[in-house]
Amino acid sequence: MAVKTADARLEERWRDILSVHARTMCEIDRALHPHGLGASDFEVLDLLVSESGEQGDQCRVQNLVGRVHLSQSALSRLIARLERDGLVERSVCAEDRRGVWVALTRKGRALHKDVLPLQRAVLARMLEERQE
Length: 132
Prior knowledge:
By secondary structure, the protein is mainly α.
């Protein structure tokens, strides 16, 4: 019987984490698809809810970069799509013309509230399954 090296165990753990992440993202995509959202769309809406407490509160797009697993350009495209769908509104930062603000619309908040239990149920199922 071969004994695993520390490097082999570390690599195995890393691949396991990636596998759980990929399967969980696919499950979230499936659960949210009937509502017109994917896992990354939901992540942005969820971050906006946590970053902006009240309707109309804004968050700088730059604050979302690094908190979602998308490049800055992919995040910009995703936000543009959410804006076309009426879920967020964008505006230019008056103090720094390079900055962009994003805020949830009433429709975006309502959709987030509707699908939040679906996303959390997938997380609970996938992560509890992993701990067994």
